Amino acid sequence: MTNCKSKKQQIFEEQALAHIDLLYRFGMRLTGNNSDSNDLVQETYLKAYRFWDKYDQGTNIRAWLFRILKNSFINLHRKESKEPDMVDYSELMKPASALHIAADANNLQELVFSNLLDDDVSGVVSGLPWDFRTIAISV
Length: 139
Prior knowledge:
There is one protein chain. The mean pLDDT is 77. Helix 2 packs across helix 3, helix 2 (20-31) packs parallel to helix 4 and helix 3 (34-50) packs across helix 4. The chain is built from 8 helices and no strands. Helices cover 73% and strands 0% of the residues. The chain is mainly alpha-helical.
């Protein structure tokens, strides 16, 4: 059986992977979420491996990994805070579907009045000329 791992990969695994549990716990403190912590640790190791040639061998690898994790979290938080809030379009569509019931203005008027006003008020408003009913609806 031949060893397919590169020298870089072997050294990285020996030195960096020993700290995975500590990084996970730190990620949990930052995110408060198991899934987000796993994602953060995974991103940390991807970045660490990608920039392994920038790591100064013999220095504190744990501090280097923690700094990568912390900076990744900060960058993610900044990115999310700049994005607009997500909207659940299925919730927005519910009120719109109720409006499809009323195909014309008269049906819409009846729908609005029947739900908002009692029978006496609906009867009086129905007796008003169209222009006055429109004003009553918008008020």
